[in-house]
From TrEMBL:
Species the sequence originates in: Flavisolibacter ginsenosidimutans
Keywords annotated in UniProt: Amino-acid biosynthesis, Cytoplasm, NADP, Oxidoreductase, Proline biosynthesis
Keyword Cytoplasm: yes
Top-rank taxon, per record: Bacteria
Similarity remark: Belongs to the pyrroline-5-carboxylate reductase family.
Single GO MF annotation: pyrroline-5-carboxylate reductase activity
GO cellular-component term (any): cytoplasm
Protein name per UniProt: Pyrroline-5-carboxylate reductase
NCBIfam families according to UniProt: proC (TIGR00112)
Pathway: Amino-acid biosynthesis; L-proline biosynthesis; L-proline from L-glutamate 5-semialdehyde: step 1/1
Binding site residues for NADPH: N54
Role according to the record: Catalyzes the reduction of 1-pyrroline-5-carboxylate (PCA) to L-proline.
Amino acid sequence: MKATIIGGGNIGMALAEGLLEAKVCKAADITITRRSESSLDRLREKGFAVSTDNAEAIKNADAVFICVLPQQLDVALTQLKASINLQKQLVVSVVTGAHTGVFREKLGADLRIVRAMPNTAMKVRASMTCLSAVNATDKDKEMVQNIFDTMGQCIWIAEDMMSAATALCACGIAFFLRTVRAASQGGVEIGFHAHDALKIAAQTAFGAAKLLIENKTHPEEEIDKVTSPKGCTIAGLNEMEHQGLSSAFIKGIKLSSNIADNLYKQS
């Protein structure tokens, strides 16, 4: 398969690596575009085809991955309009807040499109990616899932849940990292050196997530295993709840979801 990635930033490059990992493409079959010619030399050295011309770059592609910022999307779609082949080409969008209706309005109602929301853990093959599709065939969907499966786990959702997925999945990385940071700072307060506290906190967070994934249990079930009557765990948990831990987390996720829903509208 020949693929074009519009926007060779962090997510675009992770997708390129995913295409290679899934054995969907060879490097020479992947064209990556960036606005600056000077930034393409490193990509050439890796064997990718490169371009600063979006319209030209998609002409021979079977799949077009759009990885630009929301405020850059209108310009990119205007550039692609003249070259897109609705019968042949599948579009995959990772543009935050942009509904597939935007793409079909600007490129054509028959456009086959998959919308994806991964997170930055794709770099370490641990992303959670949410996917939705319009007009895409089963073969299209299987191909896209195979790509994102190389970077972690996938789930198919209704498109009207994509802003919620952005908050819980993409923004969620930052939320959980902040809790790890807070735990490590607590560790320093109780006597650990900073580097030891961070290592302990990060591995403990990893272990907690792995328990839920591998045991397929609810968090409270695992919590019950480490809380005893009048013990130190329940005392710490209750103090965190008194200080608003769960409430703050929920409010933050809701706010991020509302903002994600309007990112493209504000561009």
